[in-house]
Design goal:
Elements: E1 4-7, H1 17-25, E2 33-37, H2 46-62, E3 66-69, H3 81-85, E4 92-95, H4 100-107, H5 111-121, E5 126-130, H6 132-135, E6 140-145, E7 148-154, E8 162-166, H7 171-174, H8 178-184, E9 191-195, E10 199-203, E11 207-212, E12 215-219, E13 226-229, E14 233-235
Length: about 240
């Protein structure tokens, strides 16, 4: 069974433990290894990268998994044998927050990402991502520089119909009008998946559940945004 979790914010916090445990319980992995990738934060420096890695280790130890932080900081790292080989047999891989566009440009078309996609679609590896780690899985990903949008880049398109918007409930508080602006930028014929902070959408790519304190907002086929809250299930083909 495919197992995917998209978090709007709040990775490695106690509220997210049931989500990651659900993911770990719904794949046929040969180990209990959890791969933690703070790659999206690499442009912010080693201290930030290490902090996210340490948080991930503590989080996965708390739910009985065996975590490992992968030193994947730049595109060349995604072709290193030891990085690619780490995917085999792992139970979950998780991408934490930072710069979505940087993460997409670092991983797209690399041996590491190809190994991840193959294992996830085979039901052998669960995939989780928060903030940047969720946004880069859809059609497009914003490359941010400081507090500004530098450019749009291709997402990984693991979820080829999805335009993933994270921190959805806070966007207009960060910058007035930002949410509407980003909604106007959605690529044609995509499904908007807006995920509030401390909220997760998790499922098999077609059948999903919402967990957390906020809502997941869906707009397909040009329809109005519809919120779905904690405990709700929805049928939505994204994979």
């Amino acid at each position: 069974m495919t197992a995917i979790a998209l978090l709007g914010s709040g990775e490695f916090e106690p509220w997210a433990r049931p989500v990651d445990k659900w993911c770990a319980d719904h794949v046929n992995a040969s180990s209990n290894r959890a791969l933690v990738l703070p790659t999206a934060s690499a442009p912010e420096g080693d201290e930030v990268f290490r902090r996210w890695g340490d948080m991930g280790v503590k989080h996965y130890e708390a739910i009985g998994l065996v975590p490992e932080v992968l030193e994947l900081r730049e595109r060349a790292d995604a072709s290193k044998k030891e990085i690619v080989d780490a995917v085999k047999g792992a139970r979950i891989v998780f991408f934490s927050g930072g710069n979505p566009g940087y993460l997409a440009e670092t991983l797209n078309g690399t041996p590491f990402w190809e190994a991840v996609v193959a294992a996830v679609t085979a039901g052998e590896l669960a995939l989780g991502g928060c903030s940047a780690g969720a946004a880069f899985l859809g059609t497009t990903a914003p490359y941010v520089a400081g507090d500004s949008l530098d450019h749009w880049t291709d997402g990984t398109k693991l979820l080829p119909q999805a335009y993933v918007m994270v921190h959805f409930d806070m966007l207009n508080k960060y910058v007035p009008g930002l949410r509407d602006l980003l909604l106007e930028m959605r690529p044609k014929d995509t499904t908007v998946v807006g995920i509030d902070e401390n909220t997760a959408l998790h499922g098999d790519g077609e059948h999903w559940q919402i967990t957390g304190t906020g809502s997941v907002w869906i707009s397909a086929n040009g329809n109005a945004l519809t919120p779905h809250g904690d405990g709700e299930t929805i049928d939505l083909r994204l994979l």
